[in-house]
Amino acid sequence: MVHYTTVATCTLNQWALDFEGNYQRIRESILQAKALNARLRIGPELEIPGYGCYDHFLERDTVQHSWEVLGRLLEDRSLDGILIDTGMPVLHRNARYNCRIIILNGKIVLIRPKLYLANDGNYREMRWFVGWTRLAQTEDFVLPLFIGRITGQRSVMFGDALISTWDTCVGIELCEELFTPESPHIAMSLDGAEIIVNSSGSHHELRKLKRRVDLITEATLKCGGVYLYANQKGCDGDRLYYDGAAMILANGVVLAMSSQFSIADVDVQVATVDLGAVRAFRAARTSRSMQAARATPYPRAKAECALAVELGDFDNSVRPTDPIAVRYNTPSEEINLGPACWLWDYLRRSGQGGFFLPLSGGLDSCSTALIVHSMCRQVTEACLRGDEQVLKDVRRCVGAGADYVPESAQELAGHLFYTCYMGTENSSTETQERARHLAQTIGSYHVDLRMDSVVAAIVALFVLVTSRTPQYEVRGGSSFENLALQNIQARLRMLLSYLFAALLPWARGRQKSLLVLSSANVDEALRGYFTKYDCSSADLNPIGSISKHDLRKYVAFARDAMELPVLDEFLNAMPSAELVPHSESYTQSDEVEMGMSYAELSEFGRLRKVDGCGPYSMVMHLLHIWGDQLTPREIAQKVR
Question: pLDDT tens across 260-275, in order?
């Protein structure tokens, strides 16, 4: 028999501790899901307070305000008629849990705490929460008095349980649990859960989306069933970007998926699925049935509703959702879109008037400028589509009137993006011209200055105090003198960046300051090839986790995808800091000074970060990889 049900997942751009805004976005997503005839709606992990509250999770106020928002959802009768899965921190027996709260028609059906916490890489959940260790067990949770008055309940079920509706069974999996070897969806599906919901706060990494899709595809292929995945989207006020891509799968095929990168605050995806097909898929596999016969029984929380359309309410206009082909962004597309969305979120939340970037004429600062250009393109497109929230944010950032609509990315950049070439006697005409051409092409407000007088003043002060005059190494000075003279220039650029970021808008008659952008790639951080407190010390660094290898590919992609032929000049240029005098016989080279190429640095990064190698293991690996090109001593020297 056919049992069609329409289910909804969403991505929300939630802000840490923005309880009012978060409530409005949650409510809007539920209303959109209802308008699309969904019977079940799920949202991102910890969507009520925001996932990125960090140590604010330790404050009792965060838990209290989360209950207050939940109370508003429970009181709202316009949200009746749909099973709602939302998330917040809950204190139970004086222990803090990361929980899903299942509500229906103004009552709480179940509080399901997270079992396995994410505590590696960028995640520190064990600092704030404890995992629920009593698998397939529950106990009573006494509700706060004001919540009990709203729901008419004194206590509810708390723990690891399934939700039984009148016609199906729903299991809950939270984010990290999908990535564990013994994922809960396996035992839940064997015990009869036909729909698995997963609410996540998963941040963007290059190529990570495919891993998520593969895991969920395999889960529904092996176990059968419907799988709903929701995710946070946007910048939650820190250095991570959550890349959305909420999805719905059934029996190994993808039925719906939201955009991975978007500046929209609410994105709801629905699919109509046949629970009868789930049952047939499972019953046809004898080995699965044998395991189900001895499955661990889960407690059931009762939800007094049906998710599927009743036979008596037959509607032949209801159509099952057809499978879709998933298109994965290339790494260059991800670099182009993800950091750009992150920058827009950070800018509109900071209340500042735009970005300031020291534009050196090199590949790294060029990459950062292109990411800001991508941001301006996405924001302009949203404005021209009539996105009211984006228009409101743009007008506030640029200080424009209520009728302002940017007509192009270049026009918007003229308001929001300030670039500056900070040249010295060591700078070349080529880098100066490259910076100017790029600024003209993308529309930034560009300043071209020479700071030799400031450098000379600093050196003159040292000469006055010590009666010694430092010289560059190419002019007979020592390596100590050479490094000090280079660092003066580098650090002055940081000081000038903050000065101009604070006052350039004022000089144009505007009343806001700017966020300073850095352009230090991950390879240079790994090698230590940068000056402390130079212009790599900034408010934000959009390329800080990206290798030079990937950045070069990105610039080549942007040249073609965004029709920017000026980028050929950057791709063909030699990487150089331009901090020492150059001549026909000598030009400063990054790779020569580091003693290794950027390609070699990328290999070091992979061995260290991904494979977990220390110096000895790295040398042993590289002997096999580079042994036909370098001697063991040369390899060991590079590793050191």
Answer: 999 999 999 999 999 9
Q: 453 catalytic, yes or no?
A: no
pTM of the shown model: 0.92
Picking from 290, 288, 161, 270, the residue whose alpha carbon sits closest to that of residue 226 is 270
Reading the block at residue 272, the tokens are: 């109509």
Catalytic (active site) residue 208: no
Catalytic residue among 200, 262, 332, 360: 360
User: Which two structure tokens, joined as six digits, stand for 591?
Assistant: 């790779």
* In contact, 136 and 295? CB cutoff 8 Å: no
Residue among 34, 114, 233, 548 flagged as catalytic? 114
210 counts as catalytic: no
pLDDT digits (tens, 9 = 90+) for 151-207: 999 999 999 999 999 999 999 999 999 999 999 999 999 999 999 999 999 999 888
- Rounded to the nearest 10 degrees, the angle between the axes of helix 275-283 and helix 286-293 is 90
Q: 380-408, pLDDT tens digit by residue?
A: 999 999 999 999 999 999 999 999 999 99
Task: State both tokens at 388.
Answer: 């009211």
Does 242 score more than 70 pLDDT? yes
User: Which candidate in 175, 223, 341, 366 is catalytic?
Assistant: 175
Please name the helix (run of DSSP H) or strand (run of DSSP E) that holds residue 358, with its range, or none: strand 355-358
Segments of 289-331 assigned E as strands: 300-302
Task: Using the Cα atoms of residue 411, residue 417, residue 421 and residue 422 in order, give the sign of their dihedral.
Answer: positive
Among candidate residues 10, 45, 169, 524, the one labeled active-site is 45
Confirm whether 53 is a catalytic residue: no
The token duo for 292 is 């189900």
In whole angstroms, give the CA distance from residue 26 to residue 449.
49
Contact 598, 549 (CB under 8 A): yes
